[in-house]
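Kindly inspect what follows.
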Amino acid sequence: MAAIAARRSRTGSIAWLVALGIVLAALNLRTAVSSVGPVLDQIRDSLGMSAVTAGVLTTLPVLCFAAFGAVTPALSRRAGEHRLLVAALVLTGVGLLIRSMVDDVAVFLLASAVALAGGAIGNVLIPTLIKRHFPARPGPLTTLYSVGLAFGTMISAAATVPIQKAADGNWHVALGVWAALAAVAVIPWLALLRTEPERGTGAGIRPGDLLRNRLAWAMAGYFGSQSLIAYVIFGWFPQFLLDHGFTGEQTGTVMAIFAAVGIPVSLVVPALASRMRDQRPLVLGFVAIYVIGFAGLLTGQAIVVWTLVLSLAMGSFPLALALLGLRTRTAEATAALSAFGQSAGYLIAGAGPLVVGVLYQLSGGWTLPFALLFVVVAAQAVTGWYVGGDRVLDAVPDNDSHGPSRIDPGHLSQGRADRVVGSGRAGAAGGRPRSDRGPDPLPPTRPRLARPAGRHRPARRGAGGRLPDRCD
């Protein structure tokens, strides 16, 4: 009994340390992005940065999030999840520190890419770690993750200018201070290096396997549409406010309020989503709020009120994060879906601010940009309807190997399954998976019945009690 109690105590300690590590890591995922905007004018003047180079700097985040996010599952299989997150946080800290110390444009851009690479890896890895360590309770940990992400974004955007003023106008100090936050975030993960979780022996689902999977593309569309709206709001909404008579100081205040409202929303949405079998009501609810908010802003009246309404709709982001775990059975599947959905989604989102800028310049007003946003909201409704349905990402045996199924055989789900077979896919109703290699001699695969993620059957445990790498 004493040994079992000691094992459970150790598992509980690991759970708290993992939760702390997730929150601290989340605080750092956007500091490389949100700390630059408030002092971008000073950076351009100091480094002699052209408008084109400044455009490259503002586009760099989505490019890095897409490129490095796509390779994260492969890196994770080689290095291990805990070790890779330590490396990601080190990359973030080193990149932030180097770019705060240089006066050369090329080195500044390269260091920014290094810092953003760390954030991109963390974007994909943290949902995987939540699924790995907390398979039966993803909602509360996703809440901590999304709140940490929102708070880190807000505080780095709001505090950079005051830090610069306190440092006698030195933007180098204002950017470099955020490297210290990354150093703090590394500490719990260094302590967790010896508890690297065991991974499945199978090949797992790779991002490339999802190219013909409807759920994966729907996730990419949903993630990309909400990210596109967010990038447009943070990039162009200040100009919208200025065009409607707001001063620079008032614009900053409105944007700070807009970001702050997202924190309590992030507290509620993931936990609520994890309690629902079908998240489509949430999807459509946020779509309706987007439509109301954009329509209100387009009138040009009561702009602050409609801004608050629109900030509630940004709950679609923590919902997207929650769906990455709720639509998968295993941590490996979560990693693949997260990498595919976020990488393709950020590529979609990157085009948003550019297209809005072109439409604004051509029309000289906001009617065409808002028309584009309504189209994006419609796309979000369509993709979110599929992603929010009661279905999970599945995998079946490779056609040529006839090996064991690449899913947890003990997991049961009542949701329909989106099957993944290498580069092919079998429909949700089961049946023979498609193959370009000719007919498959195996009998048709029968559909699996199971509960979606978050309502797992408790795993069987041996006499030793809970496993140390799963906190369920």
In short: Residues 1-9, 396-414, 422-472 have pLDDT under 50 and may be disordered. The CA atoms of residues 254 and 304 lie 7 Å apart.
